[in-house]
Amino acid sequence: MQNTKNAMRIAPSLLSANFARLGEEVAAVIEAGADLIHFDVMDNHYVPNLTIGPLVCEAIKPYATVPIDVHLMVKPVDALVPMFAQAGASIISFHPEASEHIDRTIRLIRDSGCKAGLVLNPATPLAVLDHVLEQLDLVLLMSVNPGFGGQSFIEGVLPKIEAVRRRIDTSGRDIWLEVDGGVKPDNAARIGAAGADTLVAGSAVFNGGRYREAIGAIRAQALQGRESMEGHPA
């Protein structure tokens, strides 16, 4: 990944898009300023919901002129990694609870030609990063419990974002810090101030129909929060 220290990336989640015209939705949010397309995969096993698979990823790939950010909420995970890599994923993230061997899954993602991300649920301890952070391109922190769109942001995740930001900065590596769940303009400043640089937003982007306005508002608030944090170091 390019060093984008000063970037604030917005990744609209297709979970909230109109599935009857998914290709058009992808093209529309990219035209409106999306930096990534967030692609949620749920298996009705690891999480209590069932969504979309590699064939849908392959179908939207021609419309996606930005990276497809695949979030695997599935267990087991390894068999699906090469399938999504072949379908056009640029980034593949998974939950440590879904892998028998976290290091092996990370290597599988990299060997498949994708960037590797690890996803931590609100109650997943940060100790899981102790031995794998150096291998990751992205850490995704869930700010809701995974399984459904439209949930409310869990405020208790903010200190966790700050703690992961410190770990990433100490590593000296260009690792993205992504936050997913209940993100909207009203809380984007706090999320940005905590240290996130990539925000997933589903209903906050798609539900109002004004994609450019929604993406711009989330980005502006997140950047304002970051600037406030940088102006008042701890």
Describe what this molecule looks like in 3D.
With 234 residues, the protein is an alpha/beta fold. The chain contains eight helices and eight strands, in the order βαβαβαβαββαβαβαα. It has an eight-stranded parallel beta sheet with strand order 1-8-7-6-5-4-3-2. Helix 4 links the parallel strand 4 and strand 5. The longest helix is centred in the last third of the chain and has 21 residues. The mean pLDDT is 94.
Strand order of the largest sheet: 1-8-7-6-5-4-3-2
The largest β sheet comes out as: 8 strands, parallel
Query: In percent terms, what proportion of residues is strand?
Result: 15-25%
Mean of residue pLDDT values: 94
N-end to C-end Cα span: 28 Å
GO molecular function: D-ribulose-phosphate 3-epimerase activity
Keywords: Carbohydrate metabolism, Isomerase, Metal-binding
Function: Catalyzes the reversible epimerization of D-ribulose 5-phosphate to D-xylulose 5-phosphate.
Enzyme class: isomerase
